[in-house]
From TrEMBL:
It comes from Pseudolysinimonas yzui. PROSITE patterns: ABC_TM1 (PS50928). NCBIfam families: 3a0107s02c. GO terms for molecular function: phosphate transmembrane transporter activity. Keywords: Cell membrane, Membrane, Phosphate transport, Transmembrane, Transmembrane helix, Transport. GO terms for biological process: phosphate ion transmembrane transport. GO terms for cellular component: plasma membrane. This is Phosphate transport system permease protein PstA. The keyword Transmembrane helix applies.
Length: 360
């Protein structure tokens, strides 16, 4: 009887297999080789910052070639074709992440220059040139965004509950329509609305204060909270509601004890997205909150600085020593990114703590 070994024909189902760590090792090695090549190429030419995007992109292409060739030699042509398709999917994913990687790399590299204790413990009051910090902007961002969240989360969540649990007819359709319209409102229009509103209420055409910025941001947050919470409430199974009603539990208590706890993970994520959506807004805060170099803890009196406005002001109005102002701007941007990351971690923690515990 003739076997595949005697005829020299390899059986693709019984050939060797690459170890599980091989693709990850090849990917890391390909990125390392590409990084060295890019660094040497840049060193041979004009001095420039390390191009991490080129290193990752060409390293991924090198990985595609290496994994297919190695798989064909060890595993056979059939498995090599499977590896090729998988590597192409990985490449598409990496290419989609390149803008984010480039952004984070640039901000971190440039922001570390002033990422020190002085930046987080001092303001820009009486500072010209070197020194100073962004404490006043950090506090302003936390206060204004926190007040905007206090306004937006209850309004948005209650609106979503009404649309899912109670809303019927023309009123619900009208609310849905206006929420859709608010989703597309430019941020500067929200700032102009808040400024005009308080200028008319207080009869002061030059009014600038933090609470006005919170109102402007809440106009941008509310539709995001409504939409995300509405979708999360819709996916709660009706069987849970019906089981609660069958036990004689009233509707409002069913919503509080059954529906919201079941959807709390998605709601927390939606709230975090809404905060991330507005925490970096510059135009509305520049209009209605203004800017200052001093500390201000009062949302209802005086101008209040925020991190986006701080970064804009440092970049747009540098002094004689331009690099000092640019360093502060990059550090402000890095701080803003870290705040958003912290908010996402808090949202995940809240969702994990308050989500219903499943089990027998």
């Amino acid at each position: 009887m003739t076997t595949s070994a005697t005829t020299g024909i390899a059986n693709s189902l019984t050939t060797g297999r690459l170890p599980k760590w091989a693709p990850w090792g090849l990917l890391a090695g390909s990125w390392a080789v590409a990084a060295v090549i890019v660094a040497l190429t840049q060193a041979a030419g004009e001095p420039a910052d390390f191009n991490i995007v080129a290193a990752i992109f060409f390293g991924t292409i090198l990985f595609d070639i290496a994994i297919v060739v190695l798989s064909a030699l060890i595993e056979g042509s059939r498995q090599a074709r499977d590896r090729l398709v998988t590597s192409l999917v990985v490449t598409a994913f990496v290419v989609a992440l390149l803008p984010l990687v480039s952004l984070l790399f640039t901000v971190v590299v440039n922001g570390l220059a002033r990422f020190d204790l002085e930046f987080f413990s001092s303001s820009m009051r009486n500072v010209v040139g070197e020194g100073g910090g962004g404490l006043h902007a950090i506090m302003g961002t936390l206060l204004i965004t926190g007040m905007a969240a206090i306004i937006s989360i209850p309004v948005g969540l209650l609106t979503a509950i009404y649309l899912v649990e109670y809303g019927r007819g023309r009123l619900a359709a009208a609310i849905t329509f206006f929420v859709d319209v608010m989703t597309g409102i430019p941020s500067i229009v929200a700032g102009l609305f808040a400024f005009a509103l308080f200028a008319l209420l207080f009869d002061d055409p030059g009014i600038r204060f933090g609470f006005g910025g919170s109102v402007a941001l809440s106009l941008l947050m509310i539709p995001v909270v409504v939409r995300s919470s509405e979708e999360m409430l819709k996916i709660v199974p009706n069987e849970l509601r019906e089981a609660s009603y069958a036990l004689g539990v009233p509707k409002w208590l069913t919503i509080v004890k059954v529906v919201i706890p079941t959807a709390i993970a998605g709601i927390a994520t939606g709230v975090t997205l809404s905060i991330s959506r507005v925490i970096g807004e510059t135009a509305p805060l520049l209009i209605v909150a203004g800017f200052t170099t001093s500390m201000n803890y009062d949302l209802f009196a005086g101008r209040m600085m925020t991190l986006p406005v701080f970064v804009y002001n440092q970049y747009a109005n540098p002094g004689t020593d331009v690099q000092v102002y640019l360093d502060r701007a990059w550090t402000g941007a890095l701080t803003l990114i870290l705040i958003v990351m912290a908010l996402n971690l808090i949202a995940r923690l809240v969702a994990k703590i308050f989500s219903p515990k499943l089990g027998r």
